[in-house]
Amino acid sequence: MKYPLTIAAIALAALMPPAEAAALRESGDPLDSARWSDMQKAFLAGAPVLFDPRVKVIAPSTAENPMQVPVTVDATALPGVAEVVVFADFNPIVQVLRFFPEDAPAFLGFRVKLQQSTPVRAAVRTADGVWHVGGTWVNTVGGGCTAPSAAGGSKEWQQRLNEVSGRQWSDGPNAGRLRMRIVHPMDTGLVAGTPAFFLEEINFADAAGKRLMRVQTYEPVSENPVFTLQRVSADGPVEATGRDNNGNAFTARIDQ
Amino acid sequence: MKRLLGVLLLLVAGQLQAVDFDYRLSARPIAKNVYAFIGKTEDFTTDNGGNIVNTAFIVAPQGVIVIDSGPSLRYGQQMRRAIAAVTAKPIALVINTHHHPDHFLGNQAFADLPIAALAETRDGIAADGNAFAENLYRMSGDWMKGTEVQLPGRTLSAGIVEVAGRRLRLVALDGHTGADLVVVDAASGVVFAGDLAFNGRAPTTPHADVGHWLKALDQLEALTRETGFKVLLPGHGVPSADAGPIRQTRAWLTWLSAAMRSAAKDGLDMNDVLARPLPAEFARLPVAASEYRRSVGHLFPAAELQALGAKP
After folding, report:
1. How many beta-carbon pairs under 8 angstroms link A with B?
2. At a CB cut-off of 8 Å and minimum separation 6, what does B214 contact?
């Protein structure tokens, strides 16, 4: 089915390669999910929406481990990205995270817990107020959100809570890349007897104190989260700061 | 119109044939008085019903020794009938080599007989058996009907045992899972390798410790150099008269773990690793692409931890 595009979208399409322009549309969920209209109401209410192939959401079509499904959001082909919201239509907790790229490109890798097969989407708000939406289906056997965290079975995490490890790469094919892992159970609150306990905010800043990216994380982010960022250039150490919903804060320096 | 009906009938008949739940097991002699049921080198599907595994039996002087029981109750029952077609001797013992579902979910068909495994295998079946069975219902469908976990009642340990007048050497290794039993039948020269060795199929790694597995492969290869060795029966793929399957499995695991380490060291994200092409020598193995994807999920996080300087 063909849908008419508004003048703005037509203008946008004119600037894109023909294959991508053909995929651009304002309605008719390309992932054909029954939950799309609810998602649109919840996250993008009232604002113009464009399904846009320049928003790349990379995830395996079949998840081997529903507790650790790798997701990479790459919206670097879009200019003027202000905010990215990531959600999974059929998850019991749909909102996964939000990130606000400042001095770093609109690129973030992370892992999520998925309860059942679902679209995983990124909606990217550009400076003009338009939400550009991309996504992919992930098939999974389930159990991701209602299965206990591994930390639930041991006491060790309490001593290591918010312990950060990480690295930056200054040369090679992944120059400018930063990867960071934080010890945190990321409990969803959906397991009987275990309250929701999760990281809420992480900020990345360069040595001069300039913010690279702010990330708001929610319950579905996997236990012991691992993040992958891309800097324009790996120029000096990065300071990561953050806190969880119980007010436990952390500050860590990530060197090259 | 008549022709169309005929075509439709043929189609329906074809469908029926596909779902008669007959694994068509035929005992293949692999050495004197030793037989194997060789499964397909595929993943579990509703077409193969989970017949992707090798099971075997030894016709010993006073009875039959069964090694692994297959992926379902139906498989176990059909296996039992296929054994009875070869020998009238009673089954003396069923051995489970390790705690993966395609190797023990046929146990129910042998519930009236002694079933034995290493202690860790028994514990593994008790802990994970139901989840495994659930997963196979999802992948193999109605072939699994009625299948439930039947725990081994006897515990084996490494050493020489005498069963039904046959001396067996039990070698307790690990690496593919936490406990992998190798059975050496000196009388026939057969080494039953379980899933420590894969032949012409990409190895599976959901519970693997690759370092331990590689050590186990060295020990397994040493068994094939002993005098009297004739046949190696891998857990998946055709039997072999030499250590070929061991070398194949070693090559895959060595490449896989080195690939995980270098990817982590280069700063790759899990999705980058998943997108990497397989080297040609491994890409041509059956189910290589899907096993690689699964293995990235199993093995990359540990390599990543090391590259990021995190404590395990």
Report:
1. 68
2. B175, B250, B253, B254
Would you say residue A206 lies in a domain? yes
Bridge-based pairing state of the strands A56-58 and A177-182: unpaired
Chain A residue whose CA is closest to B264: A179
pLDDT at B7 over 60: no
pLDDT in tens, B250-302: 999 999 999 999 999 999 999 999 999 999 999 999 999 999 999 999 999 99
pLDDT band at A16; cut points 50, 70, 90: confident
Measured distance CA(A104)–CA(A246) in Å, rounded: 28
pLDDT surpasses 60 at B18: no
What angle is formed at CA B175 by the lines to CA B169 and CA B176, rounded to 5 degrees?
90
What residue of A is the nearest CA neighbor of B295?
A64
Structural domains of chain B ordered from first start: 20-242 (3.60.15.10)
What is the identity of the amino acid at A101? P
CB contact under 8 A, B267 and A177: yes
Q: Any bridge partners for residue A126, and if so which?
A: A81
B218: alpha, beta or left, given left = phi > 0 and alpha = psi -120 to 50? alpha
The angle formed by the CA atoms of residues B300, A89 and A107, to the nearest 5 degrees, is 50
Q: Which residue from A176, A228, A237, A177 is spatially nearest to A202, judged by alpha carbons?
A: A228
Q: Has residue A17 been placed in a domain? A: yes
Do A202 and A178 meet the contact criterion of CB atoms below 8 Å apart?
A: no
What is the interface pTM, i.e. ipTM, of the complex? Answer: 0.90
pLDDT band of residue A233 (cuts 50, 70, 90) is confident
Residue from A56, A57, A58 to probe the interface with B (highest B Cβ count within 10 Å): A58
Domain housing A198: 7-254
In a domain, A1, yes or no: no
Strand partners, A69: A112
Distance, in Å, from the CA atom of A93 to the CA atom of A90, rounded to the nearest integer, reads: 8
From the list A169, A252, A256, the residue with the least C-alpha distance to A205 is A252
Q: Which residues of A touch B (CB under 8 A)?
A: 58-60, 62-65, 68, 70-72, 109, 111, 141, 160, 163, 165-167, 169, 172-174, 177, 179-181, 226, 228
What CATH number has the domain bearing residue A154? 2.60.40.2470
In this structure, is residue A214 part of a structural domain? yes
Query: What tokens appear for A77 in the block?
Result: 């082909």
Give the model confidence (pLDDT) of A51-106 as tens digits: 999 999 999 999 988 999 999 999 999 999 999 999 999 999 999 999 999 999 99
